[in-house]
Amino acid sequence: MRTRERTTGLICVLVLAVAGAIPATETEESPYELVEVSPTVVMALHNNGSNLSCVALDEGLVFFDTGLSTRTASRFRREMEARFESPAMALVLTHAHLDHLLGMAAFDDVPVHAAVSGRTRWEHFVAIEWDERTIAAYASVFPSLPEEIPSARLRLPTDWYDDELVLGAGDGQLTVQRTGGHSVDSSSVVVGAERVVIAGDLVQARRRPYFGEPDTDFSAWIDTLQHWEELEVSAVCPGHGPVIELAELGEMRLWFEETAAAATRLKSEGVSMEEMASHPDLPDGYWPDEDTVPRWWIYCIKRLYDAS
Ligand SMILES: [Zn+2]
Q1: CATH number for the segment(s) 2-246
Q2: CB-CB contact of 69 with 77 (8 Å)
Q3: 195 close to 231: Cβ distance less than 8 angstroms
Q4: To pair with 175 at 20 to 30 A between CA atoms, which of 53, 94, 103, 135?
């Protein structure tokens, strides 16, 4: 509760501090809440897939992730182009998970960048035939997916990068880094002097994090969170959940460290994966209590066990 109040305060201060700030709104017409994180960074916070972020460079607007909805991504793009009086120049997908990229048709006319280490996943998604059975299977994870499929147009990125992507020039230059962690292609950026992080799913704020992929790398993930702490970043735009500050980032990093350490010790003591799932030695989550544990949590425990 304490951290929630602190972060809400941060956002309000930032919104008020910036001339011409956009008020935070969430109405029937607006599917997201706009958060003006810094003078050049705006995040659309919502629940239909990932958050969307926009960074205004002198050369144009760089967008990060699209969520599940082409319609929502198009609206965010239009609002940002009007707000900054500048055109979209690029889309960066922080990693190849469907809830971050299904709305990519909103950016059909600009270069689309992604880390090449995610290419196999990209090719899998682009090749999917969306028949009823497939839609139903994905809808069990992403309930809004059936209504988004008719306007979705998945295609491969136009530009692949290895570990680094530089966009823009001069002082405003953006350097996107692939560090891995949540997935092998997990990428993020620290926006220059404002020290705002656009984190993709390396940060999933105030919710149970997903880390159930075979390519989840806990040490790369922890190292990246720690690096941002050392940079004393001013704010973090997560893949899911609200903008957070440094202290909350630290709590998150500590949870991953303690969880990975506890899992390694339990496994060495002969604890099975099934026992580990509900073992009292695993630290309490950094997220609010939930009514039920999601079905996918067991995949996260399996990954944790296998990696220990
Ligand atoms: Zn993800």
Answers
A1: 3.60.15.10
A2: no
A3: yes
A4: 103
